[in-house]
Write a structure and sequence with these properties.
- The chain is an alpha+beta fold and about 140 residues long.
- The chain has a single domain (about 5-145), classed as 2-Layer Sandwich (Muramoyl-pentapeptide Carboxypeptidase, domain 2).
- It contains 6 helices and 4 strands; from the N terminus they run ααααββααββ.
- A 4-stranded antiparallel sheet has the order 1-2-4-3, covered by helices on one side.
- The radius of gyration is 16 Å and the shape is globular.
- The model has no long low-confidence stretch (mean pLDDT about 95).
């Protein structure tokens, strides 16, 4: 059996999970994935912005493959990715848009790691795996904790 055959069952299994079950599953997957490298990129951005969230997103806009847009200073942002960077997708193993919950959860993990005194809402507005040009994610700062 090829590894790609195994992932066909993985995709079918994901489809059978409830939304809440997928959130729980991908919270673990997303945090683990981001800890393997990307988290440090975001920590460096956070440090260079001295924790200023507006400056953080302004600087993130300069990263390759990333575009950021401020909707409302200190409160809402759009984060765009110009390509799917998920290794499972890039290697051709998984193509279901359900995988995008992993990205959403990884962004939540990064935001809560950097600003543990804030609460965030992260909404996937569209993704490459859904057939869109970019992955578009809306980030809202919900409240101070």
């Amino acid at each position: 059996m090829e590894l790609s055959d195994w992932f066909k069952g993985f995709e079918k299994g994901l489809a059978r999970l409830s939304t809440e079950q997928r959130k729980a599953f991908f919270a673990e997957c997303g945090s683990n994935c981001v800890k393997c490298g990307t988290l440090q990129v975001y920590k460096d951005l956070y440090d260079s912005a001295s924790g200023d969230i507006d400056l953080f997103f302004h600087n993130a806009d300069k990263l390759p493959g990333v575009k950021c847009e401020t909707i409302e200073k200190g409160a809402a942002y759009y984060l765009y990715f110009t390509e799917c960077t998920c290794a499972l997708h890039k290697k051709g193993y998984v193509s279901t848009p359900l995988l995008c919950e992993c990205s959403r959860q990884s962004i939540l993990y990064v935001l809560h790691t950097l600003w543990n005194n804030k609460t965030f809402s992260v909404t996937l507005c569209g993704s490459i795996l859904q057939g869109e040009q970019n992955c578009k994610i809306k980030i809202e700062v919900k409240e101070q904790v």
